[in-house]
Amino acid sequence: MKILEKLSNQFNYMKKKDKRKIEYIVEHYSAGTKDTTQNELDYFAREHVGASAHDFVDDFSVGHSVPYNDVAYHCGVDYSKQKAPYWGKCTNYNSIGIEMCALKDDKILDLRNPTIKNAIILTKQLMKTYKIDSDHVVRHYDVCGKNCPAPLVEDAAAWKCFKYNLQTPFKVKTTKEGVKAYSKIGGAITQKFNLGKKITVVEVYLQNGLLYGKGKNGNYFRLKNTEKLN
Ligand SMILES: [Zn+2]
Fold first, then answer.
1. How far is the CA of 91 from the centre of ligand 1 (A)?
2. How far is ligand 1, taken at its centre, from the CA of residue 145, in Å?
3. 141 C-alpha vs ligand 1 centroid, how far in Å?
4. DSSP E strand boundaries for the chain
5. Is residue 112 located within the same domain as residue 187?
6. pLDDT of amino acid 230
7. CB proximity list for 44: less than 8 A, separation 6 or greater
8. Does 149 lie in the same domain as 55?
């Protein structure tokens, strides 16, 4: 993944002298279908819009626009009449904002979508750097009630899949006898797991509304028939 950098116009964010405490990561999307990190970087460098995100992500690159210690204006307006679960908890001051480009009409909303894959890679890096757990990675929707990132708001399983992929690798245990493993999603059965079998999940996928874990040995199985272990 390529890293591009072009700082936003200073009108669009707040410079911080002292170190700020970063507790949340907020995921957004650009509502367009043809945006790229480069044209988002150019736009925010050029225009005075009073809005910003720290990073933009597209199929090929991450574009860094606002220094992480500075405050980007990405989740400060409430659309929920203060009913969104993270309103008042997650703010511009204690969060990093990531904006996914050109996601609007995408149908594949898991790791097979390169923008989503890149957003997950970037989010995981930031989680590690700032010691943020996956419970503190939220959608703009969760903070402000805005339909953003719309594909991951309108499809709750897609957001679940995104969150699972922030936690990989993790272990699960089968909760019934004979859970089937497949060579690929929709492929041949390769194995049946006993009840209580522990499996390390390395990736999670979403197909036809169903979540599949990919095990360390390359098999796929329905996550529904397992429980997550800590
Ligand atoms: Zn947003």
1. 13
2. 10
3. 7
4. 2-5, 13-14, 24-29, 55-57, 61-64, 71-72, 95-100, 137-139, 170-174, 179-182, 189-193, 198-207, 210-215, 220-222, 226-228
5. no
6. 80
7. 8, 9, 12, 52, 53, 65
8. yes
User: Looking at 74-115, which runs of residues are DSSP E strands?
Assistant: 95-100
Question: Domain count of the chain?
Answer: 2
Confidence label for 155 from pLDDT (cuts 50, 70 and 90) = very high
pLDDT digits (tens, 9 = 90+) for 42-87: 999 999 999 999 999 999 999 999 999 999 999 999 999 999 999 9
Only one residue has tokens 């225009």, namely 47
Does the pLDDT value for residue 130 go beyond 90? yes
| 9-20 per-position pLDDT tens digit | 999 999 999 999
Q: From the CA of 51, how far away is ligand 1's center (Å)?
A: 10
- Ion ligand 1: residues, Cβ under 5 Å: 28, 140, 148
Could you count the other beta carbons within 10 Å of the beta carbon of residue 138? 22
> Domain range spanning residue 211?
170-228
